[in-house]
Amino acid sequence: MNCILRRHLLSLYNTSGRLTSRAFSDAATKEKIDKLVKTNKVVVFMKGVPEAPRCGFSNAVVQIMRMHAVPYESLDVLSDENIRQGIKDYSNWPTIPQVFINGEFVGGCDIMLQMHQSGELVEELKKVGIKSALLTATEPKEEEKK
To answer: What are the angstrom distances between the C-alpha of 146 and each of 17, 33, 134, 139, 141?
Structure first.
C-alpha cells in the first residue's frame, strides 16, 4: 500500500510541478508580450515572418504594412507555443494575426483591411508619429493639381 500511495503522491507532485512551471511560463510570456507591445509603436503577432508569412491572413497584414511603409516589430507565433496561446489570452482575441498600435490591440486581418480601405489606418499611424507612404505618394499629385 505504501508503494501505491508513494506513486500516487509522486504523480501529484510531478503534475503540480508542471502546473507551477506552466503558470510561471505564462507569467513570463505575458511579461514578454507586454514589454514588446509597450516598447514598440507597431507590433504584429503573425504566423511566419514578414519575408515569408505562413498564412494568408498574416500575408494580408504584411502587405498592408508594406503599402503604408510602416516600420513594425513582428513575432512568429508558430515558433513559440507559449506566445501563440499567450497573445490570445493577452488580447482576449482568438485569431492570429494580431496588430497592436501604441500598446493597444487594434485587431486582426479583417480590421486592418477595413482600416486600410477607410483611411482610418493612416489616421491611427499619424497619432503615433508614423506617416503613411500612401500619403507621400499622393502629395506630389495633389500639388500638381494646384
So the answer is: 71, 47, 19, 11, 9
